[in-house]
Design goal:
The chain is an alpha/beta fold. The protein contains 15 helices and 22 strands. The chain folds into two domains: 255 residues, Aldehyde Dehydrogenase, Chain A, domain 1; 185 residues, Aldehyde Dehydrogenase, Chain A, domain 2, CATH 3.40.309. The longest helix has 22 residues.
């Protein structure tokens, strides 16, 4: 079997090798998951919860080791990698709790004349084998958001992590085995989406596909999956509006982190920043000063703020978008330079709505500053997108806050924060090209179960 070299994204050093799955390996994995499903689905909820909870404890005990692995294979600054490890512990703890809350409710059958004399209730049952296809940018927590709820609901899982960041997934599988997860309930496959991913998506023994990645790939999965349940967590070009009544001492540092954490490679990274004209100059001055203070370098350094992008090709692509914007009249206020996969945190202004850096998902450490005069115009500009994942609005005017909640067509509106805010038990997902379905443990469990109706005629 062929092997894949996994490299440190900053040094280029080979830090691991993993086998690349062929068609036979995929066949074995799906068969094993299918065989393990009946016993796991009948395992009492408290036992499933105990295994998932033990896994959370083991992850917590290894948090620094895991953070270092994430920093090296994903290029994520160590402080953010450690935060991801901690969030993943919480995601598994939420999953353990949710395992005990999978239930249904009664139905008043006599609400219909035809239902007189009958008792009715519905329950949630696991779908079967879940194919979890995960991205590079959160190689542990976005895996946790699929694996944890699937196991909690009683499903078995075949996991295909991103080929650039498989080592963290290997660690997680080791942890779950140590926690007592039975053989076959979680199978791991590494390989290209064009082969391994396609084989999983089209396999009729797979009942559910949960995917996080690009809209183009997601659309292809939906077309190929056939009559399967699907959850698609796709892209965004997230925006945030800043009103004049905002405390800039709070908003500016938060906006800087939101734009440049993980080198902007977060689907809810702050990419478009609409700032009221009356505070635009002050905001920009503060924003540029905070950006200049960021430490860019080796992500394993404890004080690093911004590491490399996932590979040089992506950095070259992002730099080309910047150059294209400049050719169209945009100005670079900070950054824009690249060395290998390292792209400096970049701030642009004088952009137009049709520039790629504005209307497409950059997935890079760049942000566009746009002044506005009217709040309604700012909301309209932010909502002028084919995406609709999350948005942020900084204001202390309750009427404007509720107007934004009403006006914006997206999965989440963060008031007095940016688009990047997320905690792991809230419903999370997007509208339009940002996806289908919702994650967040309780909501993922719902997506990974069927409703079974029971009617009893005594």
């Amino acid at each position: 079997m062929a092997t894949l070299e996994v490299r440190d994204k900053y040094t280029g050093e080979v830090i691991g090798r993993v086998p690349v799955a062929d068609r036979e390996a995929v066949e074995r994995a799906v068969a094993a998951a299918r065989e393990a499903f009946p016993a796991w689905s009948r395992t009492p909820a408290h036992r499933r919860a105990a295994i998932i909870h033990r896994a959370a404890d083991l992850l917590e005990a290894r948090r620094e080791e895991i953070a270092t692995t994430i920093a090296r294979e994903a290029g994520k600054a160590w402080k953010h990698a450690l935060a991801e490890a901690d969030r993943s512990v919480e995601t598994f703890r939420f999953s353990a709790e949710e395992a005990k809350r999978v239930h249904g409710e009664t139905v008043p059958m006599d609400a219909s004349a035809a239902g007189e004399g009958r008792w009715g209730f519905w329950v949630r049952v696991p779908v079967g084998v879940v194919a979890a296809i995960t991205p590079f940018n959160f190689p542990l927590n976005l895996v946790a958001h699929k694996v944890g709820p699937a196991l909690a609901a009683g499903n078995s899982v075949v996991l295909k992590p991103a080929s650039t960041t498989p080592l963290t997934a290997v660690l997680l599988c080791d942890v779950l085995r140590e926690a007592g997860l039975p053989d076959g309930v979680l199978e791991l496959l590494v390989g290209p989406g064009s082969t391994v991913g396609d084989w999983l998506v089209t396999d009729r023994r797979v009942s559910k596909v949960s995917f996080t990645g690009s809209p183009s790939v997601g659309e292809g999965i939906v077309r190929a999956a056939g009559l399967k349940k699907v959850t698609m967590e796709l892209g965004n070009n997230s925006g945030t509006v800043v009103e004049p009544d905002t405390d800039l001492g709070v908003a500016v540092p938060r906006c800087v982190v939101s734009a440049f954490a993980n080198s902007g490679q977060v689907c809810i990274s702050l990419q478009r920043l609409y700032v009221h004209a009356s505070i635009f100059d002050d905001f920009t001055r503060r924003f540029l000063a905070a950006t200049a203070a960021l430490k860019v370098g080796n992500p394993v350094d404890r004080d690093c703020d911004v590491g490399p992008m996932i590979d040089e090709a992506e950095a070259i692509r992002a730099q080309a978008w910047i150059a294209e914007a400049v050719a169209g009249g945009a100005r670079v206020l900070a950054g824009g330079r690249r060395e290998g996969a390292m792209l400096e945190p970049t701030v642009l202004c004088d952009v137009t709505p049709t520039m790629k850096v504005v209307c497409q998902e950059a997935f890079a450490p760049l942000v566009c500053l746009v002044p506005y005069d009217d709040f309604e115009d700012a909301l309209a500009a932010m909502d002028d997108s084919e995406y609709g994942l999350q948005a942020g609005v900084w204001t202390n005017d309750l009427r404007k806050a509720f107007r934004a909640i009403e006006r914006l067509d997206c999965g989440g509106v963060m008031i007095n924060d940016t688009s990047i805010f997320r905690v792991d038990h809230m419903p999370y997902g997007g509208n339009r090209r940002s996806g289908l379905g919702r994650e967040g443990v309780r909501f993922a469990v719902e997506e990974m179960t069927h409703v079974k109706m029971v009617v009893i005629r005594p």
